[in-house]
Structures are given as structure tokens and as C-alpha cells.
Amino acid sequence: VFSRNTGILETSALLNAKTVISGCGSVGSQVALDLARSGVGHFLLIDNDQLAYHNLCRHQCGISDVGRLKVDAVRDRILEINPSATVHVAPTIIERIAKEVWEDWLDGDTVIVGCADNREADIYANRLSQLFLAPFVSIGLWERAFAGELFWSIPGQTPCYNCVFGTKSNSFSFRSSQNRRIYTTEEDLSKLTFEPGIAVDIAFVTNIGT
């Protein structure tokens, strides 16, 4: 399956690599499948939402998955790429995962990828990153996905996410922390006649982050 990655990626190392993906919407589903195609062998998928028809124009899963939990739908897509992958699903938010799960999953060889639709989830993921010394990557979209922000941290070597985004006073980011399924605020939504954030814009930012 991964023979054409040989010489470009360390295939054997990636098959043993672990990743935690917080949020399996339009961003997280793309990250998960691209990492699976790269040969990553172990996944923990976290999301409490179900796939709806209006998600299909941006999500990596299809109409046959509507009504299913996003984590289950993405898990099945990963296994279609690599049937030997280990995929665990958690149909909840990252803040509600038990400590025992993190003790089993997180170490210096695990990458946490923050793909949720709110900054609070990434701040929590950052705390886990610092506690368990696991690298952390955050991929966030700005208003209408016209742009985005990418942040990565290696504990003990680089500043952490909370150092940069942990206060409400930073003025250089346009990312919303409304914990919504769309990239806008409620006030702006009343002025719109479409769901903001098209797939090509989301994919562009997500590709760079991945």
C-alpha cells in the first residue's frame, strides 16, 4: 500500500507512529485520511458530533455516512486505506477523555493534532502536550476560512500554544472561539445566506498543517 512513499517518508517509523486528532470535521477528517495515506498506523479520533447533509460539501466522508458519528465514519475511511491501522474512537470532546486514556496514548512519539472548531479545545490539548511531552500541532480557520493559523510545539524546545493564544487579549488572530460548527459568529450569521468556509479554502490551510 505504501510502496510509493518509500524513499520520501520513513514508512516503517510511520506505521508505528501514533496521532491524536481532536475534532473530526472538515479539517480533522482531511488530516486523518492524509496521515493514513502517509502510512501513520495508530489513531485516536475525538469528536462528539454526527455527520449531517450540510457537512458533505466540506467533509471527507459521504452521503452514506450521514447520521453517523464523525469518528466512526472517519475510522472506516482510514481502514479502507490501511486495513492494518489501529483506530480508536472517542465520541466526546477532548476535555472529557479519562486520564487513563492519555497515559496509554501520549508520549514523545505521539503527535496531538488540534482540529476542533474552538480555541478552548486546543488550549486543553496544549496542556496535555506539556504534561505528557507530546508534540502538538494546531490547525485553525479564520472567518469564512479566508485564512487560517498553524501552530506547532515541541515541549521543552519551543513556546507552547497557551503562551501565544492563551489570553483573550491577542489582536493578531481572527479565529473565533464560539464552539460552533461554522466559521463565523452568531451576529455575522444573521447577515449571511450561505454557510461560510468552502472546501478548497479549508483544504489549503489544512494541507499546509498536515
Write the H/E string, N to C: HEHEHEHEHEEHHH
**Spatial ordering of strands, largest sheet:** 3-2-1-4-5-6
Largest sheet: 6 strands, mixed
Instruction: Give the proportion of residues in helices.
Output: 25-40%
Shape estimate: globular
The average pLDDT is 87
Rg, nearest Å: 17 Å
What this model shows, in words?
This protein is of the alpha/beta class and 210 residues long. It is 34% helix and 15% strand. It is built from 8 helices and 6 strands. The chain has helices spanning 11-15, 26-38, 70-81, 99-105, 119-132, 161-165, 186-189, 199-209, and strands at residues 18-22, 42-46, 86-90, 110-114, 136-141, 148-153. Strands 3-2-1-4-5-6 form a 6-stranded mixed β-sheet, with helices on both faces. Helix 2 runs parallel beside helix 3 (70-81). The chain is globular, with a radius of gyration of 17 Å. It starts with 10 loop residues before the first helix and ends with a helix. Mean pLDDT is 87; it is low at 178-183.
